[in-house]
Amino acid sequence: VKHGYSKRVWCTLIGKTLYYFRSQEDKFPLGQIKLWEAKVEEVDRSCDSDEDYEASGRSLLSTHYTIVIHPKDQGPTYLLIGSKHEKDTWLYHLTVAAGSNNVNVGSEFEQLVCKLLNIEGEPSSQIWRHPTLCHSKEGIISPLTTLPSEALQTEAIKLFKTCQLFINAAVDSPAIDYHISLAQSALQICLTHPELQNEICCQLIKQTRRRQPQNQPGPLQGWQLLALCVGLFLPHHPFLWLLRLHLKRNADSRTEFGKYAIYCQRCVERTQQNGDREVRPSRMEILSTLLRNPYHHSLPFSIPVHFMNGIYQVVGFDASTTVEEFLNTLNQDTGMRKPAQSGFALFTDDPSGRDLEHCLQGNIKICDIISKWEQASKEQQPGKCEGTRTVRLTYKNRLYFSMQARGETDREKLLLMYQTNDQIINGLFPLNKDLALEMAALLAQVEIGDFERPFSTPAGHVTNQCKANQTLKQVIEKFYPKRYRDGCSEEQLRQLCQRLSTRWMALRGHSVADCVRIYLTVARKWPFFGAKLFLAKPITPSALGSTFMWLAVHEDGLSILEYNSMRLIVSYVYKSLMTFGGYQDDFMVVINNEHSKDKPTEKLLFAMAKPKILEITLLIASYINNFHQQKAAFHHLSAPALLSARTRGPQARAMGSQPLLSSSRPTKGPTLL
């Protein structure tokens, strides 16, 4: 009710602003009330006059509770609320949003926290010893915080029981899975219902505080659950203030409890920096937190990252580490440039076990990836090695920029060579049998070194010969195209090994760097080096025919290649792609033909495997986005240079740059969508 007029509305409190809508489904509010420093209080019903509220003779609620919000420099707004519980909830949250430390609103726990806030948490205060703020063996009969529904109140009481079970059951091998499921279910409920996040933080602060002796910390498992909790989300004011104070008081590197408190402090800072998590913690995250004190490691978790040359690097991370931060660490450890320059990206395998990969965006958190993968794996392969399967991360090239080749580090070159070999053996790179053998010999020299020729000694000749043959066979299997070795007879295979040994011996004394340089120089002669190839079949009717072909995605555009010879049929620059992506079950590209008046647009449809449609769409989008980012960066670099050219006069004016040149400062770069 406002200015004597009433309206039935749906209210939403976001931060320090109350928005009101026609209905719950409405996206645009009818209005808003700024709450900061507003006066919020309950109106005594006995002095109400109905005509003040119920204008137009329409009774809103026969029995209602009333809250008045009186912002500075504005008239009052009255909220008429149907139930006592809802009135208490609104009164508390509106009071907090207004920045008031009113100690008479909210639950007992909330009122005590407000009292502590008013005395700035004075350590000697008797309030700290109040039973509501301290560890309790019994359950709670009502939530510690004000919650908006009875269903959530019930959940809060169950949540306390779950926390008690987690804290009281001993952590040993048989019970560890019990602890994992308790922690996951409690934290998942808080992610599903964010209203419970303040509640669980308050419950864990309570359960990690003892009354007697003074300030002795609560059970260790309470601290462990708190550590998992603050790695996911943080409570709001004033509970965040209480949490920080609680951790500061207990931080002590001489005790196990104190170490967990210090670790929690780190988690609070990182969660504030990188924001909340999306999903509950994974089995790995819970085990790491329970079985070893994470205080001892600046990065408490670690996971191997695999490379195309068969080796891996273990990388550390914490509960808030994003893919971007993770890759910064990985690049520093392995001597590689940033992904924007190298074009490398992090991939996961598919939790279903299918031969698929998923590229990871830079802002996702590593812990969320591991947890989502773990959940999907359980759903898709129930009962299969429960708890032992974990995500496999691979770091390899995704976008190739010829301009960036000059700055390639030795590690990048080596990995590009192995990635090219992967394309060669799988028939995604055009080369004849002789060249394939040369390339295999170069890889053998890199991986194994000089070829050990079998030398004759009366006794050992046979074994040496066998060993050499075995090595040659392994090299053929690992580095020679499958299509050329399939169907080879024993004799043909023997001759192939013979020819390989001759070429390999010719490389004696060549260093790894030498061989990598030769290999990449040869490979880069193919115009589509670095492109990603996708098998596709045009859907008839099509000028391209109806046989299989390759769609090659590269920095300059999309090219269509013949299936067998891999010769170019047609290329389209990205500027000419009007739209692209999945269309029903196929991949569609709409081309803008500027030069053809009869047919200004051309629609191409290709049958492709469904996961590949998503992959090619995202890859094209990445190349286009990258092009615009480079252009924007170039624009920002060149704007000052354009300004200094003011003196050149007519030539600059002819370019139509007059408005920019006459301005005294560079203009803003293009706005990118």
TrEMBL record:
It holds the Pfam family MyTH4. Its main location: membrane. Residues 301-631 form the FERM domain. It is a peripheral membrane protein. One of its GO terms (cellular component) is plasma membrane. SMART domains: B41, MyTH4. Residues 135-290 form the MyTH4 domain. GO terms for molecular function: actin binding. Residues 653-673 are annotated as: Disordered. This is Pleckstrin homology domain-containing family H member 2. It comes from Carlito syrichta.
